[in-house]
Amino acid sequence: KAGVTQTPRYLIKTRGQQVTLSCSPISGHRSVSWYQQTPGQGLQFLFEYFSETQRNKGNFPGRFSGRQFSNSRSEMNVSTLELGDSALYLCASSNGQPNTEAFFGQGTRLTVV
Amino acid sequence: AQTVTQSQPEMSVQEAETVTLSCTYDTSESDYYLFWYKQPPSRQMILVIRQEAYKQQNATENRFSVNFQKAAKSFSLKISDSQLGDAAMYFCAFNAGNMLTFGGGTRLMVKP
Asked: Percent of chain A beyond pLDDT 70?
């Protein structure tokens, strides 16, 4: 069974640009969550999508958005990039139940210059 | 809102010895789940062990076990017979509604 796949693995963008990150969950999983990991703030929840609907949202500005497609693949978009958006962005997939394991991808390392 | 605190930024253990990583949390929820995740240098988050809050019995997975004290809101991880491959960042996490709240992490170093 293939794991969670995140693309691209590394990305360098300039301030003010926008970026789209992609996450393909484990086959059969309907929930995809996104997390931002930085040395200063640690791991923070961005949002969760379940069956193409945003079910939960963290405390991030509107520049951070996402969507989920009918095949459960998810994309995350960050517009008007700021230096502080430099981070490791992790995607996790699960069957959507809170007691089950969330399987993580290897992340996308975004650097904003 | 939930908060998760890991008070030990860094721990070290001798190979084959036992180490305990601490975690406390704060919540008003009654039904929730707790997890320990490991993040090696590859950055891949790997589930180590999980605990349902309604279960009084502490979870065990091979060399890994937890000490879950619900009243004290404490959830520590014990690693027995430590191995070099256990060296990683360890994160305690809380889940009450399909979103994980993580602690700040503990970096575990294993000395040969």
From this structure: 99
Does B89 contact A at CB distance below 8 Å?
no
Tens of pLDDT, residue by residue over B29-82, are 888 999 999 999 988 899 999 999 988 899 999 999 999 999 999 999 999 999
Contact criterion met (CB below 8 Å) for A37 and A87? yes
Which of B92, B37, B99, B40 is CA-nearest to residue B68?
A: B92
Residue A89 makes CB contacts below 8 A (sequence gap 6+) with A6, A21, A34, A35, A36, A37, A46, A76, A107, A108, A110
Are B82 and B72 in contact, with CB atoms under 8 Å apart?
Answer: no
Distance CA A111, CA A14 (A): 8
Task: Give tens-digit pLDDT for A52-104.
Answer: 999 999 999 999 999 999 999 999 999 999 999 999 999 999 998 877 889 99
Nearest to A106 among B44, B96, B105 (CB): B44
Closest chain B residue to the Cα of A9, Cα to Cα: B43
- Strands B106-111 and B10-14 come out as parallel
Choose among B98, B100, B101: nearest Cβ to A55: B98
